[in-house]
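Example record used in the benchmark description.
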Amino acid sequence: MNKHKAGFVNIIGNPNVGKSTLMNALVGERISIITSKSQTTRHRIMGIVNSDDFQIVYSDTPGVLDPQYKLQESMMKFASSALTDADIILYVTDVYETFDKNQTFLDRVKKVEVPVFLVLNKIDMSDQEKLEKLIDLWQKEIPHATIFPISALEKFNTDNLLTKIVETLPENEAYFPKHQLTDKSERFFVSEIIREKILENYKKEIPYSVEIEVEEFKEEENIIRIRAIIYVTRDSQKGIIIGHKGAALKRVGTQARKDMEVFFDKKIFLATHVKVNKDWRNKPKSLKDFGY
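Model output (structure tokens):
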């Protein structure tokens, strides 16, 4: 009789290497938002995979960066904590990244005592010769790591990675109920979907100045009624978010509502409003209220 396995698998790495794409591929559900912009992930998000024999608790953490304000300091705390409470670490890099990016954090990865799987992502954008050189370089950089060349987007070699994760998990009882998919609330995913659409629709500093608060989430038999506040740091940003005659905000709301209807498998009524919370990214109370 097989003994049950369970453990925490923490996904870490620099921005833009495809951590969230990998997380979603491994979980089999769209848990983490994905955009081409850096700093897309702000929180530590868990995705839980269950079978009769094992439970894997994945954590997608914010990308490693040099903090410029208190919000980013909180984001880095999420990333750093992932080094201390994991049973397995997935250190994600890609075929473009060099070692010197956040070398200090990489040096900490080298010192951890739990198994490290170095995931070399985006191999569909490389050739065999370059790939072999990168594998050799990374093996010398982190000698104790097991290297997995993959394409998270194409789901190439992710099955082999999953098999190795299951083999390496410690024997434990499940940490979460078998039906649970994540540790986050429905309101959290509403705010993340809206924030994803803002990341996709606005340029420069605007997406990084935005936070979402879900004031109302009321589920009825045939519809979910949601009211969300989009906070910005300056008055000028409020006008940009709303756009001419409200067109920009309407576009974001429509795109977010469609994704929510897929996510919740139910009709959604979404009302969005924009408010100013000046310099919220540097206010400890505001950061705490927003869950950082």
